[in-house]
Amino acid sequence: MKDQPSGDPPPDDVLAELRAFFGQVFPGIDLGADDDYFRQGNADSLFALELVTFVEQHFRVGIDVEDLDLDNFRTLGRTTAFVHRKRAGAAVERRPGGPGND
User: Fold this and answer.
1) HEC sequence for 42-65
2) pLDDT tens for residues 15-69?
3) Which fold is adopted by the domain 32-93?
4) What secondary structure letter does DSSP report for 12?
5) Domain coordinates of the chain in residue numbers?
6) Is residue 33 within 8 Å of residue 76, measured between CB atoms?
7) pLDDT of residue 96
8) CB under 8 A, 24+ apart: contacts of 69-75
9) CA-CA distance, 16 to 19, in Å (whole number)?
10) Quick one: pLDDT band at residue 9, thresholds 50, 70, 90?
11) DSSP element (H, E) containing 83
């Protein structure tokens, strides 16, 4: 098993954690991994900010301005993939000899 920073949910739990968050925000709405909650009218720009904040704080990933593309956050599946990409990038940066470690 790969080392996870202390307190971070394991990668396999990212989708489950997002589902729990959505269950609190949208009680009674059952979203599939590929359901576009913005297109369905369940989410708006205010929710987008709440989602970005949740992802950044809960999963401890840095979100840069260039990451604020709606396509990264429009479905549970895409948001999960985004978290995995950010974690993978952070792991590369922490590795000796990784970017920024010259």
Assistant:
1) CCCHHHHHHHHHHHHHHCCCCCCH
2) 999 999 999 999 999 899 999 999 999 999 999 999 999 999 999 999 999 999 9
3) 1.10.1200
4) G
5) 32-93
6) yes
7) 62
8) 70/38, 73/48, 74/36, 74/37, 74/38, 74/39, 75/33, 75/34, 75/35, 75/36, 75/37
9) 5
10) low
11) helix 76-94
pLDDT of 89 reads: 87
- Compute the average pLDDT of residues 83-91: 90
**Burial of 26 from C-beta contacts in 10 A (0-12 / 13-18 / 19+):** middle
Q: Report the residue count for the chain.
A: 102
Whole-number Å distance between alpha carbons of 81 and 25:
21
Q: How many CB atoms lie within 10 A of CB 63?
A: 16
- The Cα–Cα gap between 13 and 80 comes to 9
* Tokens (6 digits) for 27: 């009680």
Each as own residue / partner, the long-range contacts of residues 41-48 (CB below 8 Å, 24 or more positions apart, any chain) are: 48/73
